[in-house]
Model the fold of this input.
Amino acid sequence: MLSKRLQHKNIILASGSPRRQFFFKELGLDFTIQLKPIDEVFPEHYKGAEITDYLAQLKAAAFKELQENDILITSDTIVWFQDKALNKPEDKEEAFEMISSLSGHTHEVITSVCFTSPHKQVVIHDTTKVTFKTLTAEEIHYYIDNFQPFDKAGGYGVQEWFGYIAVTRLEGSYFNVMGLPTHKVYETLMQLADS
Done:
């Protein structure tokens, strides 16, 4: 349905995330993948969705020349906990530290998505609250050793073994925690198809 509405548009997904690529396929979209490296640095005083909005727009700014029918889609996800952004862990020690800090607490997962065409830019974001049980060090080490969650904000993937055993409550979009608020992406693309 959506692909028919967008048949005259060229959708460019600027994400190396296999999860986001999977979602776009499941939404029935024809798209190409283009990646441009950027330094994901944001102003220190930014909080929550200000960070993800900024980084999604920063990723879009790396694409200088868009054609008339292009819609470029960039996005960013963070875990927001105790007034601090948790991005992707660099190693096992940092992953352990992140997950340990989230153990027994509620945090927010915030994803922003930026839609850019030659004449327009729209930024949306979504927030999901996730509560973890109190985890043992053995459980955390098992997860890190077996699933290598170094490409995931906050050091975990809700769709993996860890999500099955750790998440006791989730308020908001499950798919947002995986990295894309699919319901909002669908609505925004439906609107852009008519513009």
